[in-house]
């Protein structure tokens, strides 16, 4: 048999499970794991590939490296410490950040938007707080003037991480709750799906996999909170139900009504007639809210110094596979003034994607 034939047989006999196990073994050593991650980042810069190098090539390698890593710890450039299990795209993007100490965990422009809207806020509420990627940063900011961050996360493991991250960062103003936010209180929900993609479904009988609900209005009444400054919702399709349970806050006068940041996704929202014609946006319009799509990466990307880009709800480019993105709803111009440096950009996609058409999917002033 020729030398070339032997090489061909060796390649044909490659054991995918063995390769994954080998990468996982390397990944148990944090220093070696970091070396491999940095090598993957270099590959992303140098490889000529027609699609997303990360999604198709480097992400599977990094996922294998972290398969047996257990709990991961990472510190932001601003000093916040996060611990989290590696089991979602949020975790992967965080560990693959550039710079290696970024200024955010996930969704750079949404993080920036939330922190600006929280300026001088006394009461902030986060539904779908996960391990604290946004809630911890919000709690830290508003702690300086006595603000409180109310955080809801029904996933028990992520709730434990949320509580731990609050403790790691010395935050006593983050109130974590295992309840689900909904349109009604005292009903039962369960999470269907995996981790950060799990969506809530209503069930008729409580069991070990269900959790109880409360409305935003009901919770605030229990806490003696009259007005909410900022409401952030990321609960995989339950956003409309939560907003229905927030009607009392949404109906407040312009100066008192909260700014709302929430996710919409094609799996849960029918936008075939235009985003502005969806039930959730019509509902908000009934309270005199103006709504924009937020242009952002579903990733950890360095966007320091870049303005926040907003798309009017009736001018959002929506073509493409089923996808989701964040929205901003404000009542009157005062909340917009808090944002500071922002651009209104009609006719583009809210999905910022490095490997897609720059005219639709890149920031107006470029990627960097």
Strand order of the largest sheet: 5-4-3-10-11-14-12-13-15
**What best-fitting shape do the alpha-carbon axes yield?**
globular
Give the uncertain stretches in residue-range form.
none
Q: Biggest β-sheet: count, sense, barrel? A: 9 strands, mixed
The CATH architecture classification of the largest domain is: 3-Layer(aba) Sandwich
Structure summary, number of beta strands: 15
Whole-number radius of gyration?
Answer: 22 Å
Sheet/helix structural class: alpha/beta
CATH superfamily of the largest domain: Vaccinia Virus protein VP39
What does this structure look like?
This protein folds into two domains: 13-95, no CATH class; 108-361, Vaccinia Virus protein VP39 (Rossmann fold, 3-Layer(aba) Sandwich), CATH 3.40.50. The protein has helices at 3-12, 16-27, 30-46, 53-65, 89-95, 108-117, 135-143, 156-168, 216-223, 239-244, 247-250, 279-285, 334-339, 358-361, and strands at 71-75, 81-85, 123-127, 148-152, 174-177, 180-181, 188-192, 199-203, 210-214, 230-233, 259-265, 290-294, 308-312, 324-330, 342-344. The termini are far apart. The strands form three sheets. It has a nine-stranded mixed β-sheet. Strands 6-9-7-8 form a four-stranded mixed β-sheet. Strands 1-2 form a two-stranded antiparallel sheet. The chain contains 14 helices and 15 strands. By secondary structure, it is an alpha/beta fold.
